Amino acid sequence: MASPSVKVIEKSNERIVVQFNNIPRQYVNALRRLAISEVPTLAIDDVVILENSSVMHDEALAHRLGLIPLRTDTKRFVMPHECDCGSALGCSKCRVLLVLDAEATDKTKVVTTAELVSDDETVKPVSKDIPVVVLAPSQKLKFEAYARLGTGKSHAKWQPAPVAVVKDGKDENEIILVIETNGALTAEEILRESAERLHSKIKGFKHVVDSLKIPKSA
What we know:
Structural class: alpha+beta
CATH topology of the largest domain: RNA Polymerase Alpha Subunit, Chain A, domain 2
Strand order of the largest sheet: 1-2-10-9
Mean pLDDT: 94
Number of helices: 3
């Protein structure tokens, strides 16, 4: 039987295509599933509205903010439940504060993510051009938003990979994995994080198996 091999056939920050040869499909599919559901990213999940005279309700605004992809450094932050701060409000290791203070004066104004100010220079929206709300003359919007790490299995706003597909290659034992990112992580970072989590799960399963006690025969 031919040896297993892995080859990157296309790579950019937004997309990666990997060719697997002589590797069971279930392992490749596990990477796909982990990319969608268990690779953590930052997303806004708590919003304090200080002033909102726009036509958008506070709840709808908070929902929209949660869906804005934020550039994430998974090595710098920890999941809230794993942080040693023990605070419901969080700390600099498990949450990031983003604020916005906008006002339309004499004409309609489109408020975009360019006006979101983060207290961590590494955590910013992946684009400055994402619309947040439209303010009519004299309307104002001011809020504090808190971003925390989470995973896609908890909510779609934490999914870093809107596209993760496994498909057959040209040859019988060839499988292709395609991952596209929303920008929170690069496509390569998503793949690496998925591989690390798969490795950890396999090690954990082996530990459980090794610890099993085989009953003595009667």
